[in-house]
Design a protein that fits this description.
Strand content: 5-15%
Helix content: 55-70%
Structural class: alpha+beta
Strand order of the largest sheet: 2-1-3-4
Largest sheet: 4 strands, mixed
Radius of gyration: 17 Å
Amino acid sequence: MAPTLYMIPPSPPVRSVLMTAKALGLTLNEKIINFPAGEHLQPEYLKLNPQHTVPTLVDDDGFAVWDSNAINPYLIGKYAKDDSLYPQDLQKRAIVDQRLHFNGSVAFGAVAGIVRCILYEGKTCLDDNDKTRVEQVYAFLEAFLDDGKPWMAGDCLTVADYNLYATVSAGDVLVPIDGQKYPKVATWFEKVGNLPEAEATKKGLAIFESLISSKLQ
């Protein structure tokens, strides 16, 4: 029985889980949550995830976990054939974990804060503060890549690349990556976007782009 993913397609965290699952060759039972109808606030969903967010993963044994920065390492630990995406080596894993924490607290926080204002508070244009918040994320990522390593956590592709790519792809819709200012980020972004597993994110990203463009003037 396949794990069940409670989701909405345009969500960056959801898209990172879809990307990870595709990389693992793992089929998920995708269940779309109707947020306008309040499905995320129903008792049965709150029992799975008291924070009433997406994504939420329920494995075939009933185990539930939410937040892509927890879900993806779990999926890799259970279903991957090796540890390349989430290394067992403590020092390598520490770097991956740092990138995941950065994604959850800084990168996604910047993007989600702006998106929330657009979708729920009637914001119709980005101000300088919005642009600065997103560009600060790009600047940090540029520094992460400053040692010449091709991937966000070093020499090898890891789950950190998946999670950050999903967030940055949303950021790029809001504030396009300037390849002159952030050449390493631009190169990395294109490289991850060309991975086969990135195809799993494209439909949701297109929905996100359409949604944002319909709100901004």
